[in-house]
Design a protein that fits this description.
Elements: E1 9-13, E2 21-24, E3 28-31, E4 34-37, H1 45-60, E5 66-71, E6 94-99, H2 105-113, E7 130-135, E8 141-143, E9 146-153, E10 159-166, E11 169-174, H3 182-192, E12 197-201, H4 206-210, H5 221-230, E13 236-239, H6 247-260, E14 264-266, E15 271-274, E16 280-282
Parallel strand pairs: 5-6, 6-7, 11-12, 12-13, 13-14
Antiparallel strand pairs: 1-2, 1-5, 2-3, 3-4, 4-15, 8-9, 9-10, 10-11, 15-16
Amino acid sequence: MNHEGQTLGCAWYNADPGKREWAVRRQYVVRRGQARQRHPHHPGLWQRAEALGKSILREYADRTVQAHIFLTHFHWDHIQGIPFFLPLYRKGNTFLFHSPLRRGSELQHAIEGQMGNPYFPVEMSAMGAKRHFLDLEEGPVNINGAVISSAPLNHPQGCAGYRIEADGRVFVLATDTEPGSPIHDRAVRDLAQDADLLLYDSQYTPDQLEGEKKGWGHSSWQEGVRIAQERGVKRLVLFHHDPDSDDAFVDSLVAQAREEFPNTMGAAEGLEFCLDTGEIKQVGALPRIGLSAER
């Protein structure tokens, strides 16, 4: 299976009454009752952000898009898709950026700064959509009945994980986190409690985390399995694969994880998970391979 992928942040789009859609940038999409993995790691973050934007514009046609975007952190490999996200350029759309890591003008500067001279030829002021930059305080927030909680993760310069509770289902994103800090280890476990789907950073092997990759701010399949077992997670999806790991190697890590937690999968482009039924589908151009995860 093609396992390329790295998830970046999350957003909620609400175009139609009663329609709920969550998206984690570089493109992990969680709709009401389902989740979809649609993102390669390298190359082409900008291409994937552009493709996601085009798909949203096609779906909503002449209707406006209103979205809450929750940012995990601000390393360039996690925000470089923003300048190419086409709905931001359409007048009438509204985007609210949230982060617990930066406050007010700091958050705005972190997002807009990557588009300033000499990094990008078009400044963010050229975008037609309305943009708001909001502090994400401690404690959950409720957006039209969907409850979003955040927790600090152990990563250089900080990172936030997110828990989304809606329609009786729980989706948890824990990217860019390294085990070993008691405060952060407890925080990510609380975030993952009883999750229907935990999307967890598993970039390195346990041996790498004990050696040359210690302190780099990423985790392993083994820690993901521990969290899933300890906190009653129903499905564990390993992601944030190392760019140096080929598909065969990632498959071997998934196999090791399944020996201890059978309901484990490796994130891959085009996978769609239905949180209500447990169904897994392949969408897009990739072949339907390796979808027989135990449940």
